[in-house]
Amino acid sequence: MRAIVIDDERLARKELITLLNQLESVEVVGEAVNVDDAKEKIEELNPDVIFLDIQMPEKTGFDLLEELEIVPHVIFTTAYDEYALKAFQVNALDYLLKPIEPKRLEEAIARLQTKIESFTKSEAAASNSNQKKLTLNDQVFVKDGDRCWFVKLSSVRLFESDGNYIKVYFENFKPMIHKSLNALDERLDEKSFFRASRKHIINLGWVEGIEPWFNGGLVVTLKGGDKIEVSRRQAARFKEMMSL
Amino acid sequence: MTMNKERLYWILQILGWGGFAFVIIFLASLSSGMSAIQIWAFVVLAIFNLISTHFLRYIVKTYNWFKLKIPQLLFQSLLSLLALSCVNLVAQILINVAFGILDPIEDFRILLILANLFQAFLFYAVWFLLYFLFHFLDNYNTSLKYEAKINEIRLNHLKSQLNPHFIFNALNSVRALVDEDPVKAKTAITRISNMLRFSLMMDKKQTIDFAEELNTVKDYLELESIRFEERLQIRYLVEDEAYSYKIPPMMLQTIAENAVKHGISNLVKGGLIEIKCREGLNDDLYIQVKNSGHLDQAPSLKSKGDAGHGLSNTVQRLKLIYGTYASFRIFNSGNQFVITEIKIPKQKVKFE
Questions:
Q1: A20 touching B, CB under 8 A?
Q2: Does A34 touch chain B (CB under 8 A)?
Q3: B228/A9 CB distance under 8 A
Q4: Cβ of A11 and B227 within 8 Å?
Q5: Pairing of strands B337-345, B327-333
Q6: How many residue contacts between A and B have a Cβ separation below 8 Å?
Q7: Among B169, B292, B306, the residue to mutate for chain A (most A Cβ within 10 A)
Q8: How far is CA B294 from the centre of its chain?
Q9: Residue A80 touches chain B, beta carbons under 8 Å
Q10: Domain contains B350
């Protein structure tokens, strides 16, 4: 797998690259010294995995994840950021403590390898044609205040626009991301997500009930009880999609 | 706070003795009815009780009875309560004379005198018990608060001793250095062990020689410059007089760490840390740490927040050790630099 190492300290990068070079399965294709540098290199080199330091000058590793359109697999490297790591309460997430133990690194890589393999399999099955679209298996990085999540799109039942932000509904959480609903709509796979109205995008896998509504519209009940109105214009398309 | 206590005391006194007068008048009027003169006599008696207990409080406070051992306190208080009861008895008779309601045959019966004496004693004893009870509860409360504060400072102190973030980052750099520059790696290991030893040994001492602290800070900044490389410039401007001072251990160290953490490590291009130590006019030492960066808002020196942690701790320690003789400030110097400054007096330690 192709990797990029991101850390503001030269010696820290050197140390990690030395360790990674000893592993056959990993090829280090680049290194970056800060968030802007990293963003450029990730978009250019499209790595499978990034090794990301959390504490960097001006922008942190979390800021990078927020800025990225497509987030590759992430392994955090940190000396001692108990607070930062506690932020990830929902998703188990891989991180390595500096100085990095070679055995721990190897294990993390092995875990990632199996994850990538299962990913590519299901991804190939799901959508061959539109590779640029986000499918149910993709994950998005969401940060809300002090808490962060990597959320698998299959567990997101609803996106709701709120000013310049989008509320992402999953489990008991609804953190906000700074994006427009239109931009998100274009990136989502239309087989899995449906634009119900100007305000809402729903996950079709979470639909539990459908009832007619005024004016030829519909009301969709999602698992968990959220009720979303489907505008008249979209209702016809919705019926079409849901029927054979 | 003393104002509040004084007010509380008077409110309780007036309410207590006012209530006493009211209850007695009420009970007496229920059983036999009462003339206006008798009512006034009771009001005057209540006022006398208030004044006499206030006098008792004066004695207790002036001779600091709170510090007495229990047997002596018991003895003294019983004696004084008894004396006060006798005075009270005389006062009752005088009041009756003054209001012209004394009935010599009835009122001078030995049984009635004893009953009145006992009653007066009872009231004084209750007053005395309540007074002491309140005092001890209050005292207990404040000493608990004080204890908690001291513990908190100690705990914060421990936390600020070893900065794990620094230690692990330094070790990580050294690991890379082992291949790149083995000699430098060896020096770095020595520096790390110096620092560890220092922070383990020093936490019990109140103050140490300035030279000792400065050496640790030098070790520390050398290690950070291995990490930050060309991003960290260091400059020392230390007057010889500074070496005759004693300073609290790990204090300059904490300030230097803050300068790195909030200054250098947040700047992509890095910057400068300058340590300046000079003697003031009145036998005090000014230590200034200047670092690249900018304070957006004054860091809180009181709160328990994470960011201000090292600093609030420093302020507390200065206050504990030197009282008002030491001072601390942090401010922007132009747009480029932040200066942290402490002033330490020569050998004016508050307690050992």
A1: no
A2: yes
A3: yes
A4: yes
A5: antiparallel
A6: 59
A7: B169
A8: 32
A9: yes
A10: no
Residue B224 CB neighbours (<10 A): 24
Q: Identify any residues that bridge with A156 across adjacent strands, giving them in sequence order.
A: A170
**Residue A193 · residue A181 · CB < 8 Å:** no
Q: How many CA atoms lie within 13 A of B48 on its CB side?
A: 19
Residues of chain A with Cβ-Cβ distance to B226 below 8 Å are 11
Query: Are A34 and B268 in contact (CB < 8 Å)?
Result: yes
| Residue where a domain stops, chosen among B143, B158, B173 | B158
Q: Which of residues 169-198 of B touch A (CB under 8 A)?
A: 169, 171-173, 175-177, 179-180
Q: How many domains would you assign to chain B? A: 2
CB contact under 8 A, A99 and B228: no
Tens place of pLDDT per residue across chain B (352 aa): 455 788 888 998 999 889 988 888 888 778 776 777 888 888 888 899 889 999 989 988 888 888 888 888 889 889 999 999 999 988 888 888 888 887 777 777 888 888 888 988 998 999 999 998 988 888 787 777 767 766 766 666 655 566 888 899 999 999 999 999 999 999 999 999 999 888 877 666 778 899 999 999 999 999 999 999 999 999 999 999 999 999 988 889 989 999 998 899 999 999 999 999 999 988 899 999 999 999 887 666 654 444 455 787 788 788 877 878 899 999 999 999 999 999 999 875 544 3
Element holding A130 (H helix, E strand): none
DSSP strands (E only) in chain A: 2-6, 27-32, 49-53, 73-78, 95-97, 139-144, 147-152, 156-162, 165-170, 176-178, 193-195, 200-203, 207-212, 218-222, 227-230
The answer to whether residue B215 is domain-embedded is yes
Question: What are the beta bridge partners of residue A141?
Answer: A150
* Sole residue written with tokens 């003169």: B37
Residues B113 and B252 grouped into a single domain: no
DSSP B94-114: HHHHHTT---HHHHT-HHHHH
Residue of B nearest to A14 (CA): B176
Query: Which CATH topology does A139-242 take?
Result: OB fold (Dihydrolipoamide Acetyltransferase, E2P) (2.40.50)
**CA dist., res. B115 & res. B121, Å (int):** 10
Q: Which domain holds residue B300?
A: 163-345
In this structure, what DSSP letter does residue B152 have? H
Amino acid in position B98: A
Q: Is the ipTM of this complex over 0.85?
A: no
